[in-house]
């Protein structure tokens, strides 16, 4: 089958959350300020999807299963879809589509500038994620797509600026991000296949 069922499962799993949150907002299940809750959930969803996307290559190296890579592009595009919804929810529910407030907002919440830089970088990756761009850009494509680590840094900084005192949740995402970054350092990456090869035969047979 060209499009296996589990890939459709990934699509449904990513699509269901924003729909559920919109339904909750509509049915007044998100408290007195549903717009803000929606913005926060979509922002966190963007960061989590970014981390999941970045985990695909190390998982493929660890397990040897090509399926992780097959689904990486779809997850990256979902990450972009979430950030578009995050931005749209901010424009509608926080700004109230009143663009004259934008200047005030930027001076009141400078972390938005950091988020906006992350958005532009994600947009660049999304529009060049197709095979045509890959062929046209050649080796530059890989370099461009290393921007994903910059986006992770911007996303974490953006969140840190917002949560400030309550660092527990932020520290979890930052640690996962740091681990994924470490796994991309060439001497560490080179050791990953050896870790699998060194498994005792009984462990692989089971
Ligand atoms: C133009 C782009 C962006 C705008 C305007 C924006 C705006 C916002 C706003 C207004 C909040 C809520 C702040 C609050 O609770 O007081 C927020 C939260 C957040 N945003 Fe963004 N953001 C943008 C891009 C991004 C990007 C690129 C990422 C991730 C890569 C991201 C991840 C987050 C996270 C993780 C939170 C915190 C959620 C939580 O506390 O539960 N945002 N953003």
Automatic annotation (TrEMBL):
The keyword Transmembrane applies. GO terms for cellular component: plasma membrane. Binds 1 FMN per subunit. Binds 1 heme b (iron(II)-protoporphyrin IX) group per subunit. The chain crosses the membrane at residues 5-23, 43-63, 75-97, 109-127, 147-164, 170-189. Residues 44-155 form the Ferric oxidoreductase domain. The keyword Heme applies. One of its GO terms (biological process) is protein repair. It is found in: Cell membrane; Membrane. GO terms for molecular function: electron transfer activity; FMN binding; heme binding; metal ion binding; oxidoreductase activity, acting on diphenols and related substances as donors. InterPro entries: Fe3_Rdtase_TM_dom, MsrQ-like. Heterodimer of a catalytic subunit (MsrP) and a heme-binding subunit (MsrQ). This is Protein-methionine-sulfoxide reductase heme-binding subunit MsrQ.
């Amino acid at each position: 089958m060209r499009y296996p069922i589990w890939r459709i499962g990934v699509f449904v799993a990513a699509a269901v959350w924003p729909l559920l949150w919109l339904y909750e907002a509509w049915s007044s299940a998100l408290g007195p300020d549903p717009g803000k809750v929606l913005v926060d959930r979509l922002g966190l969803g963007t960061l989590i999807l970014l981390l999941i996307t970045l985990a695909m290559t190390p998982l493929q190296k660890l397990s040897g299963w090509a399926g992780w890579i097959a689904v990486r592009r779809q997850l990256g595009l979902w990450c972009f879809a979430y950030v578009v919804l995050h931005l749209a929810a901010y424009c509608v529910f926080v700004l109230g589509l009143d663009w004259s407030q934008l200047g005030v907002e930027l001076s009141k919440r400078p972390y938005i500038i950091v988020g906006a830089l992350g958005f532009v970088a994600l947009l660049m990756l999304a529009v060049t994620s197709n095979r045509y761009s890959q062929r046209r850009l050649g080796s530059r494509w890989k370099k461009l797509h290393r921007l994903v680590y910059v986006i992770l840094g911007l996303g974490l900084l953006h969140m840190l600026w917002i949560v400030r005192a309550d660092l527990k949740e932020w520290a979890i995402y930052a640690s996962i991000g740091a681990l994924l970054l470490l796994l991309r350092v060439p001497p560490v990456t080179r050791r990953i296949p050896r870790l699998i090869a060194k498994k005792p035969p009984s462990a692989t047979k089971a």
